């Protein structure tokens, strides 16, 4: 199971390729936050935003990552978000 899958609501499912893309976007967004540990709320905000963008049909890893980072901006501790 990809780390992002735990954030999928019970009524949402994605095909294996989409799930890999969402997982990659989630991992990339978390990595871009740097080495500073982030609160769980940051990872939740990133994941939820990525899942919402994917539900609207987005499948580009970079755009999904950007959506996640945008959602995390209010939470980020000690890291610069682009």
If you compute it from the alpha carbons, what radius of gyration comes out, rounded to the nearest whole angstrom? Answer: 12 Å
Beta percentage is under 5%
Largest sheet: none
Which class do the helix and strand fractions yield?
Answer: mainly alpha
Average of per-residue pLDDT values = 85
Detailed description of the structure:
With 82 residues, the chain is mainly alpha-helical. It has one domain. It is 55% helix and 0% strand. It contains three helices and no strands. The protein has helices spanning 16-32, 40-55, 61-72. α1 (16-32) crosses α3 (61-72) and α2 (40-55) crosses α3 (61-72). It is globular, with a radius of gyration of 12 Å. 33% of the residues are buried.
Keywords:
82 residues; mainly alpha; 3 helices; 55% helix
Strand and helix layout:
Layout: H1 16-32, H2 40-55, H3 61-72
Quick overview of this protein structure:
This protein has 82 residues and is mostly helical. The protein has helices spanning 16-32, 40-55, 61-72. It has one domain (3-72).
């Amino acid at each position: 199971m990809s780390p992002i899958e735990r954030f999928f609501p019970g009524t949402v499912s994605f095909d294996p390729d989409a799930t890999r893309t969402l997982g990659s976007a989630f991992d990339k967004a978390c990595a871009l936050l740097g080495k500073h540990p982030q609160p769980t709320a940051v990872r939740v905000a990133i994941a939820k935003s990525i899942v919402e963008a994917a539900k609207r049909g987005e499948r580009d890893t970079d755009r999904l990552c950007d959506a996640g980072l945008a959602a995390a901006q209010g939470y980020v501790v000690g890291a610069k978000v682009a």
